[in-house]
Amino acid sequence: MAGVRQDARTRTSSLEVTASLIDAALAILEEAGLPALTVRAVATRAGVAPMGVYSRFGNKDGLLEALFVHGFDTLEVAIETRSDANPLRRLSIGCLGYRQFAIDNPQLYHLMFEQMMLLELSPESREAAKRSFMILVDRVQDAMNSGDLTNGDSTEVAQELWSAMHGAVSLEIAGVHFAQDRAANFAAMINALIRGLG
Amino acid sequence: MAGVRQDARTRTSSLEVTASLIDAALAILEEAGLPALTVRAVATRAGVAPMGVYSRFGNKDGLLEALFVHGFDTLEVAIETRSDANPLRRLSIGCLGYRQFAIDNPQLYHLMFEQMMLLELSPESREAAKRSFMILVDRVQDAMNSGDLTNGDSTEVAQELWSAMHGAVSLEIAGVHFAQDRAANFAAMINALIRGLG
DNA sequence: TCCTCTATAGAACGTTGTTCTCTAGTTGTG
DNA sequence: CACAACTAGAGAACAACGTTCTATAGAGGA
Lengths: 198, 198
Hints:
The structure is a homodimer. Chain A is built from 9 helices and no strands. By secondary structure, chain A is mainly alpha-helical. The first copy, chain A, has 2 domains: about 15-60, Arc Repressor Mutant, subunit A (Orthogonal Bundle), CATH 1.10.10; about 60-195, Tetracycline Repressor, domain 2. Chain A is elongated. Residues about 1-10 of chain A have low confidence and may be disordered. At the A-B interface, α6, α7, α8 and α9 of A face α6, α7, α8 and α9 of B. The structure holds a DNA duplex (30 and 30 nucleotides).
């Protein structure tokens, strides 16, 4: 586990501290939620002084932005799918992976999209988010190329899919979802949308 | 305008204070954003001491919950539509009203769904949110009754629509939306979803 | 007109994000 | 191996936050 403090007032090996802080923040986030994610709590758990957060991330927002990037890097893996003879099936599997990521990391997922609203993200961070989106665009383009989706602007169609997925998992995570079976409702929505896109 | 302080240390008429606090909070929220929405700022703008927030709403979360209810009451009006010979058109118009509410009150919209995730809402508050949802359910049921939508569980279908709408406006408000024309992309998504639902 | 009660203005407290300072640890040089 | 210069971080300190406390101003009944 990261953040084992050897001794009071000992210099911790510098390379590991950044990772320790992010690990500590992720752990606190999922265990105790966003309000518990204080600079002091993260630093203590990582075995450093609060100052460590500022020397590495600038301020708390910088740490949150690091979590944002980490989240999208993880999401990128979650929606990646291996090649499939049926492009629509591959697309659907990626969508289910998207939902699974949100269900597995509800607090992180919420934080990722929260940040976009509240703080000004660097272009590099926004790029990390766009990488995940581009995977979706690729899957849509594949389905258009094979004739499984009506030809059109794959970015526009991918955006429609992303909007729908994001809304569904956001409401599910927030606990305001009136469907009986939320996984089934998610799948039904994706299927209806894909069917409607022709 | 609410919150005109007559004099230092004057008893303000009790009935108006609650409304003044909510008005002040809404104004600060849309003008300066969520971080600026402090108990002191709201109380000052409403012309009362911070204590006023606590005697009326319990704590800051209580004030936020009042904003939540106010938001859903306003949303309910925004998605309400007058009777229409074409049930699908009426449904679509309601959906556009939903988006317009979010675009017109981005900070409030964000806060409403933020609250659901972060704090435990009272059953009464949740009921206010559900009232808006039920309007959507009614429109879906109308379209099913007329044969414009395949018969099925109107709640499930309404949930799919709500998910999609919420995701689209959330991403649009957050500024992470890759479509050229966001209004058009929203309409295209709704149309595709309705088409896919049959 | 006085008394009682309620609501609240203003001060005070603990915790937060952030900054400052000083020292311990590291690194380069002989 | 010894010493000096530099760097990074530990811990204290600060402003602002949510919240609580207390003394008092105002309302209502006799």
